[in-house]
Amino acid sequence: MVGIEDKAPDFRLSGSDGKEHTLGEFKDRYLVLYFYPKDNTPGCTMEANEFNNKIDRIRELGGEVVGISKDDLKSHEKFIAGHGLKFLLLADTDSKTIKEYGAYGDRGIFGTGTLRKTFIINREGKIIKAFDKVDPKGHAKEVIDVLEILSQM
Known about the structure:
This protein is of the alpha+beta class. Helices cover 31% and strands 26% of the residues. The chain has 5 helices and 9 strands. Strands 2-1-5-4-3-8-9 form a 7-stranded mixed beta sheet. Strands 6-7 form a two-stranded antiparallel sheet. Strand 1 and strand 2 form a beta hairpin. The longest helix has 13 residues. The model has no long low-confidence stretch (mean pLDDT 95).
């Protein structure tokens, strides 16, 4: 499990844009890396839509949103197309990166799987904010609040 001030674990994952992506390519901005259980489920859709609705403001503040789930690229393509998402989704089908970030565990009645967590990673690749218990409703606003504080520093 990783926490604030830890170096963010690197990854190499396939993206919804057809390319492979690594942590290093986001060093010119704050990376809002969010982990979610499953494409096209109510909570995950709410969270993605909220990020999507606020993506312009997040980018104005120097951030970029990237979502990770264990869903495959075909599932991500349907999710993006169905909701008009304007940010990258990464496929972690073996849950390796999900586990490295501590976003895997007991989900109560839903069994063991991906937990809803978000990390803000700075330009040096360090975690500067961790949201361990994410409520999809209003979460994008929480992220914007942090980015606004960071932009004033």
